[in-house]
Specification:
single chain; 7-stranded parallel β-sheet; 2 domains; alpha/beta; 3-stranded parallel β-sheet; Rossmann fold; 286 residues
Length: 286
């Protein structure tokens, strides 16, 4: 039996976003498929029982709450090593990329992308300094690295000089709840979220690296020839609604056709996705 400690600090009830969903979907499967191992879930705050997926999971709350670069350091370089030593862990798994440089416990992580290396100004000063100092070191520290695309794998190899054989690809997939919906549901969702009109959808964290400013510009151009009254539905919290995102939105000619419902629960999100017109991907080109 292995004792596997897992950084689960992003599993927060009703606040899960992209990386958090990767944690949720992978850990819910791994823990149930491997009852022969003991898992220790490291939370940084009181947790919901819905994240305790199996009987072989022991949840532990490790202080302090890590939501600032200084607190990241205290959590990963001081609190985590103590917890790993206390449980005598065989492995530390960190699905959000962060590791501890202060532990001798074998560690592996998931790198989702290196956007902070290519677009550092999209992050606050301390955040980008933290990423650009620690993540190259995490890449060397890890006994294995998982990542979600061929592009990210190549980027990690070139940027951090990591051996290709050290990196595993784990592609993302859709949540099982995303399924076709009935016609009455479609009518209700259109009435509730898009004034009965067809719509484009963006969902995720409203962050500069998501290229929302360009999406707003593109939608304005599309509306010049649109004859269907199409809306742009933006699903996500406005935490990073500053700088060029706010400026681009404020300057939109068709601002009234952009709908911002904030975060929605998974069931509602499935219903919204089921009848969208198109799904724009405003990817930053590196």
């Amino acid at each position: 039996m292995l004792k596997i400690a897992v950084n689960t600090r992003l599993l927060i009830k009703d606040k899960i976003e992209g990386i958090g969903w990767v944690k949720y979907e992978t850990l819910s499967r791994i823990t149930q498929q491997h009852p022969e191992h003991q898992f220790y879930f490291f939370f940084d705050r009181p947790f919901s029982e819905e994240f305790i997926f199996a009987n072989n999971i022991q949840p532990l709350v490790i202080n302090p709450q890590a939501r600032h670069p200084v607190l990241y350091y205290l959590w990963f370089e001081h609190a985590i090593p103590r917890a790993l030593k206390r449980i005598n862990a065989d492995l530390f798994l960190s699905p959000d990329g962060y590791l501890s440089l202060s532990t001798k416990t074998p560690s592996m992580n998931i790198f989702h992308d290196l956007s902070f290396e290519h677009f550092p100004k999209d992050l606050p000063f301390l955040e980008r300094k933290n990423y650009r100092y620690f993540f190259p070191r995490y890449a060397q520290k890890a006994i294995r690295i998982a990542t979600v695309s061929e592009y990210s794998k190549k980027d990690i190899i070139e940027k951090y000089r990591v051996d290709e054989d050290k990196i595993d690809l784990i592609y993302c997939s859709a949540n099982d709840s995303f399924k076709p919906v009935a016609e009455d549901v479609k009518k209700r969702i259109r009435a509730e979220y898009s004034q009965g009109a067809p719509y484009f959808l963006f969902m995720g964290s409203l962050h500069p690296r998501k290229n929302l400013a360009r999406l707003f510009t593109a939608f304005d151009k599309f509306k010049q020839t649109d004859t269907l009254g199409t809306k742009l539905l933006i699903v996500g919290m406005k935490k990073w609604w500053t700088g060029n995102i706010k400026e681009a939105f404020d300057n939109m000619e068709h601002q009234d056709d952009v709908i911002l419902p904030g975060r929605v629960e998974l069931k509602t999100l499935n219903e919204i996705v089921a009848l969208l017109r198109h799904w724009p991907l405003p990817t930053l080109v590196i």
